[in-house]
Structures are given as structure tokens and as C-alpha cells.
Amino acid sequence: MEFINTIPYPLIAVAIFMFGLAIGSFANVCIYRLPKKESVVFPVSHCTACSAPVRPFDNIPVISYLILGGKCRDCKEGISVIYPIIEAITALLLLAGFFKFGLTFDFLVYTVVAPTLVIITAIDIEHQIIPDVITLPGIVLGLAVGSYTIGYIDSFLGFLVGGGLFYLLAVLSNGGMGGGDIKYIAAAGALVGWQKVLLIIFIGAFLGSFVGLFQIAVQKKSRKSLIPFGPFLAVATLITLFYGNLLIKLYIDNLAS
Ligand SMILES: [Zn+2]
Asked: Ligand 1 center to residue 81 CA distance, Å?
């Protein structure tokens, strides 16, 4: 790893941004195919309108979208602007993670977690589900990584507290809380431990109720229309990964004084 110290910092940042664009491109494939239970590896990307395979030189994240003017080269059908946005968001998140964590084990974990949160957010908004194919491996990975970074007791407590609380909510609310949300928060809890999973739930509920009230006021949405909780949990998880230690310290300091 010594040689990394000889590479200029801005160069590493640029490389991570480009890597983030590529991961974002793969995230798009996952967002589109996972809910349909399709393979994310085969076949190669193709136009959703005319099924023409995307040429390798038309598959460059963000750039290709701009060069093609947001249209398929073959059928000229519009390509959703969501694709380059997902790529840009993923790249920016990875860059922010690099600035926060540096080239550490935490950053390595983050390079998996952050794009996964982008995928979960997009799929939950579109389909109101968080697929098992993400959450179940997430629980295994969360327990494995959490055991290494925060200890297996805290990791397992996080899994229990997060999953248990949401399971209880699901029972009490009579299906108001989805199974995907329960598995998601169990995975997140295993990764970050019992204190931070409570923080994720608190921030998620705060953001959710805030946006929910805003939606009801502005769009005159009924209270019953479903607002997926996954995106709020994903944002809350990101906030906790970045500022969890600080927020918990502030909370404890204020409680003690
Ligand atoms: Zn086409």
C-alpha cells in the first residue's frame, strides 16, 4: 500500500470519481433489472425501447448521454435522464466518502454500501419494494463486516434492535411497515451497531414525517397514499455513516450535562 502515498491526492480523487461513474452505471443496471428478477450480468445493456444493444463507446457514464443528446443511437427514442443522474450521484457519493474516510477499510465498505443505498432508493421509489436479493446478502455482509469493525456483540445487537423494532412496528401497524424495510434495517443495524441503528431510525422517521407532511400540504395527497420509507432510511444511513459518531457524542454530552 506504500506506493499509494506517492500518488498525488487529486489524482486519486479523480480516479475514485471515475470509478464512481462506472459503479453508478452498474447501479442503473441493478435498478432496472433486479425488480424484474433479471441477471445483472447478462445480456449486455440494451435500449429499453428498441432492444438494440448499447455499443461500448455509447456506454460511457454521463458523457455518452450528453453526446447522444439523451436519445438512443438506433431508434432515437429518449433515454431517461435518471440514468446519468444516478451515475453522477454515485460518483459524488464515492468522492465524498473518500474525503471523509480516506483510503481506509471503512471507505472500502462504503464503496459497497453507498451505491447499494442509491439502488435501494431508486427501486423503492419506483416499485415500493426493497428486494431480498439486496437485503439478505446485506444482513450477512453487515454481520461479517460489523463483527470486524465494531465487534460481534454490537453488530448482533444492532441486527436485533433494528430488525426487532421494525418487526414490532409491522405487527402493530398491521402491514404499514414492509418486510423489505425490516430486512433493510436489520442489515444496517448489523453494520453500524445498536446505537447508530437507533439514530438511523430516528433520522429516517424525522425526514419521512417532514417530507410526508410537506407532500400532504402541497400535493393534497391523502395520508394513506404510500410514501416508501426506504429512501428516508437510505439517506438516514448515509448521514449516520458520515456524522453518526458526532451526533451520538452531542446527544450523550447534552444528556450528561
Ligand atoms: Zn433504441
From this structure: 15
For ligand 1, the distance from its centroid to the CA atom of residue 128, given in whole angstroms, is 27
pLDDT recorded at residue 7: 83
Q: How far is the CA of 52 from the centre of ligand 1 (A)?
A: 6
Give yes or no: residues 63 and 151 share one domain: no
Domain co-membership, 97 together with 12: yes
CA 35 to ligand 1 center in whole angstroms: 22
Q: How far is the CA of 74 from the centre of ligand 1 (A)?
A: 5
Considering the domain architecture, whether residues 97 and 147 belong to the same structural domain is answered as: no
CA-CA distance, 134 to 33, in Å (whole number)?
12
CA pair distance 230, 204, nearest whole angstrom: 9
Amino acid (1-letter code) at residue 41: V
Is 42 a domain residue? Answer: yes
Question: What does the pLDDT look like over 119-145, one tens digit per residue?
Answer: 999 999 999 999 999 999 999 999 999
77 belongs to a structural domain:
yes
User: Which range marks the domain in which residue 63 is found?
Assistant: 1-102
Q: How many domains does the chain have?
A: 2
> pLDDT below 70 — which residues of the chain?
1-2, 220-226, 257
Round to whole Å and give the CA distance between 148 and 191. 10
Question: Ligand 1: distance of its center to the CA of 36 in Å?
Answer: 20
- Cα of 89 vs centre of ligand 1, distance in Å, is 25
136 and 240 belong to one structural domain: yes
pTM recorded for the entire structure:
0.92
> Separation of 84 CA from ligand 1 center, angstroms?
17
Please indicate, yes or no, whether residues 159 and 43 belong to a single structural domain of this protein.
no
> C-alpha grid cell for residue 64?
455518452
- 256 CB burial (10 A radius; 0-12, 13-18, 19+): exposed
